[in-house]
Amino acid sequence: MSLRLSTVILPIYRWTEGREVWRRAEELGFDAAYTYDHLSWRVPFRDGPWFGAVPTLTAAASATSRMRLGTLVTSPNFRHPVPFAKDLLSLDDVSDGRITLGVGAGGTGFDATVMGQEPWSPRERADRFAEFVALLDRLLSEDSVTYDGTFYSASEARDIPGCVQRPRLPFAVAATGPRGMKLAARYGQAWVTTGDPKLFETGTPEESRDAIRGQVDRLGKACAEIGREVAGVEKILLTGFTPDRTGPLQSVDAFVDFAGRHAEIGITEIVIHQPVPDTDFAVDPRVFERIATEAPAQLGR
């Protein structure tokens, strides 16, 4: 069994401190380090430092040389595909082809209203997400794109010289519903889940794994519908939002057990949060580093 181990570094650090956080993640051997792409996030982060994802990843690309970098996840809530594609192309160049775009439909939080708009309905979020992903796919794969859609347009949008990664940088599509799964099957080099949010408060770890197993099965069916092998789609679990909460990060053994059980149901990459004191991600940094350095060998790396 082989399972990749990655981390999320929240964009909460001034770069004088953040530089060392990202460098340390690479030193610890993580396969990838992601950051959230929000304009602000939930309490207690809502009224504290929170920096932009694109500048943070650009700086991280210059401070590291091996591990992959990316968003987990970007949404259409405050982004337009045309300027965002230019940012992504530039990020891919600065990082020498180490960027993964994690992308999701977004929600109803602060990002959904910060630009003065009313929150979109679930249907409109899904419609916008589909158009957002499809247009980004073209913008990052073609030199010039003209498009007139329901929500987004492009008029001879140039993205030259294109991505370092060909035909474009990889997409990791966050999805649980039927439409999202079809997007992941069609456009995703990876698929992302946080589990079933309905189980977070009252579910059990076993129920959570069953739900994720069902999601993996639905992804497989979506791939089969278009003649694609689901084995070619990486399956990423962003931890911290299942009933286990931070339990798997209390010891190396606990994490290896958690990760191994999820590998058995098809997960190929586990993402754990960089510790943040006095938050839901407050775990012992020493244990976190032991997990990073000791768990991969036990998981077949």
Account of the protein in words:
With 301 residues, this protein is α/β, with parallel strands linked by helices. The protein is built from 8 helices and 10 strands. The protein has helices spanning 15-27, 53-63, 81-94, 122-139, 178-187, 205-225, 252-264, 285-298; strands spanning 4-8, 32-35, 68-74, 99-103, 144-148, 153-158, 171-174, 190-193, 234-238, 269-273. The strands form 2 sheets. Strands 1-2-3-4-7-8-9-10 form an 8-stranded parallel β-barrel, surrounded by 5 helices. It has a two-stranded antiparallel ribbon with strand order 5-6. β7, α5 (178-187) and β8 (190-193) form a beta-alpha-beta unit. α4 (122-139) packs parallel to α5 (178-187), α5 crosses α6 and α7 (252-264) packs across α8 (285-298). The longest helix is centred in the last third of the chain and has 21 residues, at 205-225. 41% of the residues are buried.
